[in-house]
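Quick note —
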Amino acid sequence: MKKYAENRQNLIDAGDEDGIGYLEEEYQRELGHNKDYAVAFRPDVAGNYFHNRALLIRGIVDDELTRDAKFSIFETLKGGRTMNEAMGDLRSIFEPWIGDPTKIEPSGISDTEEDILKPYRLENIVRTESTTAVAQGRAAVADAAADYVVGFQHSSILDFRTTEVCQLADGITFKKDDPRAVKLQPPLHFNCRSIDTFVTSDDEVEWTSEEDLDAVVRLIQPEFK
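Predicted structure written out below.
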C-alpha cells in the first residue's frame, strides 16, 4: 500500500500518465489475487453508481442537455478517453446551445453563458463527477470484500495545484466503517484529483489519529459534502 502510493507520486512527478494507469492495473490485479474472490476495482461498479446518481451542472437548465452530458461522462468512466477528449466531448454538447436561455443560463466566475465552455469548468465537471463515482465504486468493492478490506489510505497528487485539504489528507488512513468515511473519501473538493487505496488485513497499518482525521474534515467545505 505505502509502496504503491510512493510509486504513484513518482510517476505523477514525471508526468507519466501511461505509467500511472499501468501501476493502477498492477495494484488491483495483485490485490485481487490475494484472495479467492477478486476485490479489484471495476469500472462498471463506478458506472452503475454514476448512472443512478442525479447530475446537476450549474448553468445547464435543460433536462435533455443534462442527460447528454451525463451519458458523455458515463462513457468516460467506461474507459478509453483522456481528460482532454472527455472535455472536448462535453464542449461539443454544450456549445451549440450557447445563446438559448432555455438550455444554458449564465454561471461561473464570468457569470456568462460561455463560462460553461471554459476549460476549468469542463475539467471540473469531468473530474469531480468521475472521482465521486470511482470513490463510490471502491467503497462498494471494499464492502463486498468483507473483512479483507478494512479501510482506505488517501493518496493526493502533490504539486502546485494541490489544495490545503488534500495536502493535509495525503497519506491518512481510516477504517471503512469510520463515521467520517463518507466525508473523507474523494473528492474532497471540486476538481479533486485524489484517490483512495485499499488497506487490507494483510497490511501493517498505523491508523490516523482521531484528531488528525477531524482536522481534515474541518477543511472540507460544508456545502460540498
